[in-house]
Amino acid sequence: MIKFLGSNGLWGYMNKYGDVVIEPIYSRASFFSENLATVGLKNFDNNKIEYGIIDKSGSQKLKVSSRYDFIGHFSDGLAVFRKDGEWGYLNRGERKGIRSFDWKEAFPFLTVMRQ
Length: 115
Hints:
By secondary structure, this protein is mainly beta. It has one domain (2-113). The protein has no helices and 13 strands. A hairpin with a 5-residue loop joins strand 10 and strand 11. The mean pLDDT is 85.
């Protein structure tokens, strides 16, 4: 699946033949990794992006909401997230978060510790 920018200024996804599979409705869209993509919708009430996770059919696996400030792509079953200034990882299968107050920032397989 390939993300594309629609004429409406929003992101969607198409297959390798150029057929639109997921209509361009998202303000943010990651590439697909482990058959999942992180997407975001702009909340015009607070001017923030609300994140969620979709599969290749467009079905929301983690409903788009203001629960997370950021969600990265999945790698080896984990996705980086930020919530209330804290960083952590979401588990792909169970959607549970692992957070730490000690992490200044988190990356796939790398964490920078505060001193």
